[in-house]
Write a structure and sequence with these properties.
26% helix, Alpha-Beta Plaits, 37% strand, 21 strands, alpha+beta, seven-stranded antiparallel sheet, 281 residues
């Protein structure tokens, strides 16, 4: 279900599948994921390390709809229950510290188990109408409300943004945060991802859930799945090792669905752990 940009959005008041337009706002029922399509000029240059621009954009869009909601979520010192993909650019070239865009469209996926978040975000980006990454602005062409996927007891996912998994380890006599890498113990990595997912689920729904979950990374892809993300926060360059690898997950369908909506691993609200099925989304 597609709806075009602001001309139609502000003038049309009708029921479109699961989207209702009323009182200058859209209300989406049971929608957990949206795909944004932006127009791009060929040859545009954006920084390789752009994740912080996307995070900033998310809170800006939320604030355009509800400043208090955006502020409370930003200041929340706990799980925020949303994730987003890297920018999906079909043709590009790396030039130094920049990505040269060679396609005329860019895709961006936003996902959350919270209907309030999706509604607030969607209405905000409709008002803004563009995405700024560095010095480049991409015009919003359309929003696609993605249908619910059928979750089965065994699912194959691809990473739309890398998965972050951490623990505490002693280094030079001090207990420090350690970021797991693909060559580390896979059982430890899987156990950390599972425990994190269960904690997020319990925190969101306020109920327990069976944690029977098995995660199997693609062994052929795993050796080349290490990525190092430079996340800029408060003018600090935070280096975050992460894993960008397809994987199969088996077990509790409800828990699998929550991972698909909310993200696998840690730092989901900073744009990590977003997954898709097969191709995009």
């Amino acid at each position: 279900m597609l709806f075009k940009k602001r001309k139609i959005l502000k003038k049309t008041c009708k029921l479109l599948m699961k989207v209702v337009y009323s009182n200058n706002r859209f209300f989406m029922s049971n929608i957990m994921r949206i795909k944004l399509i932006f127009l791009s000029e060929l040859g545009s240059l954006i920084p390789i390390n752009y994740n912080h621009f996307l995070t900033s954009a998310v809170y800006n869009y939320l604030a355009k709809t509800d400043k208090e909601y955006s502020s409370n979520l930003h200041n929340l010192n706990s799980y925020k229950f949303f994730t987003f993909s890297w920018l999906q650019i079909s043709k590009k070239k790396i030039e130094g510290n920049f990505i040269k865009i060679l396609s005329n469209k860019i895709l961006w996926f936003i996902s959350s188990p919270s209907k309030d978040f999706i509604n607030t975000f969607a209405n905000g980006i409709i008002k803004v109408g563009y995405l700024r990454v560095g010095s480049v602005c991409f015009e919003l062409q359309q929003i696609e409300v993605l249908p619910e996927i059928e979750i089965k007891p065994e699912m194959k996912f691809v990473c739309l943004s890398p998965i972050v998994v951490t623990t505490k380890k002693y280094h030079n006599g001090k207990l420090e945060k350690y970021y797991y890498k693909p060559e580390d113990d896979k059982k430890e990595i899987v156990e950390k991802i599972k425990n994190n997912l269960v904690k997020k689920y319990k925190s969101f729904y306020f109920r327990d859930i069976e944690d029977n979950l098995e995660i199997i990374f693609d062994e052929n892809y795993l050796p080349k799945s290490k990525v190092l993300v430079h996340y800029i926060k408060d003018n600090l360059d935070i280096k975050i090792p992460a894993i960008m690898c397809p994987f199969t997950v088996k077990g509790n369908k409800e828990l699998i669905k929550f991972g698909y909506d909310c993200g696998f691993g840690e730092l989901n609200s900073a744009g990590f752990g977003c997954v898709g099925v097969g191709g995009y989304g």
